[in-house]
Amino acid sequence: MNSKVSVHKLNLFYKDFQALRDINMEVPAHLVTALIGPSGCGKSTFLRTLNRMNDLYKGVRVQGRVLLDGMDIYGEKCDVVNLRKKVGMVFQKPNPFPMSIYDNVAFGPRIHGIKNRKKLDEIVEMSLRAAALWDEVSDRLRQGALGLSGGQQQRLCIARLLAVEPEVLLMDEPTSALDPMATLKVEELIQVLKQDYTIVIVTHNMQQAARVSDYTAFFLTGDLVEYGATGDIFTTPKEQRTEDYITGRFG
Ligand SMILES: Nc1ncnc2c1ncn2[C@@H]1O[C@H](COP(=O)(O)OP(=O)(O)OP(=O)(O)O)[C@@H](O)[C@H]1O
Q: Does the interface ipTM go beyond 0.85?
């Protein structure tokens, strides 16, 4: 496996509550890895350790190592702003900024110092095309992003991420607020995006994990119970607890 992210003996505490225990995982490059497990098992917490989003919470302690292309993201040399540019995140509820479609996508590049109008136009078009949204919005780039449908807003958030040229996309239940058609579009988009990006997705929906991912990690109360090729996890899990979860015995 060609690993993009390697996680070694990762432990995470919220004050004195341990939310992740001794997690070891290799996240393969240019594939989709799904994180599944019942509510509260630590999926979102784990996802947030991959771009140090947990730093934003008070009282969080992280032990262990997370290597991105071999570089320890918790090491002293790591520049967190640059890390979050490389490892971007999409959230459960689409959260476009209250500004135009164009300005949403141009936001990141502008912050990173790009001012040239033609260059920005190019980035905006490329990012919207990559997020499979261009055809729906090209004639109204100056209109407010909040006027888009939920599914369009989520793809806009993905375009906003792509505009800063990330390498890894973290998606925290990206379709849970969307209807089935909008969900399908985002799932199709994920399949296209994995050619260029490494994707880690948290999902409550096991069918979705089975549909979109190449590898699946099953978490339970802070432990990584089982991790492997999605086909194996869903057809021949090694652990009884995995089987009980995927066959709907709990969760
Ligand atoms: N900021 C926080 N402060 C304290 N405890 C937290 C915090 N965030 C999460 N937790 C706790 O850590 C554990 C893991 O939470 P997390 O949100 O990662 O689980 P999850 O599997 O993503 O759940 P869900 O599917 O419901 O979102 C839970 O017991 C939760 O209550």
A: yes
